[in-house]
Design goal:
With about 475 residues, the protein is α+β, with helices and mostly antiparallel strands. It folds into 3 domains: about 160 residues, Methyltransferase, Cobalt-precorrin-4 Transmethylase, Domain 2 (2-Layer Sandwich), CATH 3.30.950; about 70 residues, no CATH class; about 250 residues, Heat Shock Protein 90, CATH 3.30.565. It has 15 helices and 24 strands. The protein has a 6-stranded mixed β-sheet with strand order 15-14-18-19-21-20, with helices on one face. Strands 1-2-7-6 form a 4-stranded mixed β-sheet. It has a 4-stranded antiparallel β-sheet with strand order 5-8-9-10. Strand 9 and strand 10 form a beta hairpin. Helix 9 packs antiparallel against helix 10, helix 13 packs across helix 15 and helix 14 crosses helix 15.
Length: about 475
Amino acid sequence: MTPTQLTSQLDELLNLPLETEWVEWKHNKDHPEMIGKTLSALANSAALLGKETAYIIWGIEDGTKNVVGTSFKPKQAKQGNEELENWLMRSFRPQISFKIHEWEYQDQPMVLFEVPCAKQYPVKFESEGFIRVGSLNKKLKDYPGKEGELWAVLSQTPFETGIAKSDLGADEVLALLDYSHGFDLLEVPHPTDQQAILDKLAEEKLVLSKPGRQFDITNLGAILFAKDLSQFDRLGRKALRIIKYVGDSKVEREREWRETSSQKGYALAFEAAVDFVNSQLPQNEPVGKAFSREVRMYPEIAIRELVANALIHQDFSLTGVGPIIEIFLHRMEISNPGEALVDTQRFIDASPQSRNEGLAALMRRMKICEEAGSGIDKVIAGAERFQLPAPEFISDLGSMKVIMHAHQELRQMNSQARIRACYQHACLRQVERKSMTNSSLRTRFGIEAQNAASASKIIKETMEVGLIKPSDPNQGRRHASYLPIWA
């Protein structure tokens, strides 16, 4: 921040009540351990009070808030032989990226520490967490009521409200976000001046206004509308990757999506990503009665839904990894960090759940994802219409993966693939308020009527593994129908 911005910010802070648990006033007291405890206490108290940032200001007399200046020089201070700033950084778990500012206010030297609020976990200094009680720093463990409240707040703090980039001027915010494209996607009128644009971005929770005409870009704003995600440190690795391989292994890459849009926020890049995937898919030969001409291997509706799900439902707390689409000769894999929140066997009927409700809500408004959790239904229905093997849903080892397989004749499918397709067909029929029958399963696999015994065999295999059941335990074979086991 510039000296003018710092002065404006201090003016606003000085108007706060004398005892504020997210602001600390000091004259010259600069003991390193005291600073560390105070930073921990302020970060935790700010989270508890719903403040994104807390502050320590040197040069203001505690108790009167008179401007007295300070002799404290944090950039020159040391703890032992180590610079104070580095020593403090090392002493916090998890680390917090506080910022130090030095400038003159009313002709007096001043120091301001900006302290981001705790996220996900309480901030500890040298293995001990602290909290503000009035104007004092106290051990968090000695106040179990406040500790419980803090954990409750932190467990509910969504990724979207976190800060992707802080302390920006208005011009910097508008240079980093493609707000014009964003307003188009959200179908809202374009504001006519800079302040109106920023007000609208703040209304949509894409930016936060701060004292001194400063702004923070939220994770929600950056992940959706960043012109370049690599400009946001923690989000740079969250850009969607698309890789096409030669053959069915990862030995040789044929092409990777490196177009301009590949580093853009998800809302800006989504259509380009889907178009790129479609352009890299092999053609599918005409399949039985389903198609009389060549089409792309996988239905576009399935690609759209699976890509949207991978973006929306990922676990952003897992660093260094992001969503990825991998295209092989006979399959496509779409993966994202974070295991599924519901049993993969219940994807079709389960009520939609999301780790990132704010992200999901805005993407629904932009018509990128489904409103009522029916996206997986469309994926299954698309696979059936194209007479593809059933998609695989694999949640394991901290990630979620969906595998779409290229067309196979029924005789080429193994028992596991046949059972998976039968179960998913029964689930799809159930959500359509219908039962699976031998006839409906024959249609799904493209089995001729004279080969009904083949469908009966698949039904029997699926019942034996406990995935489906008869609609009526006393039904005859001629008019038999079946339900998923959970129905």
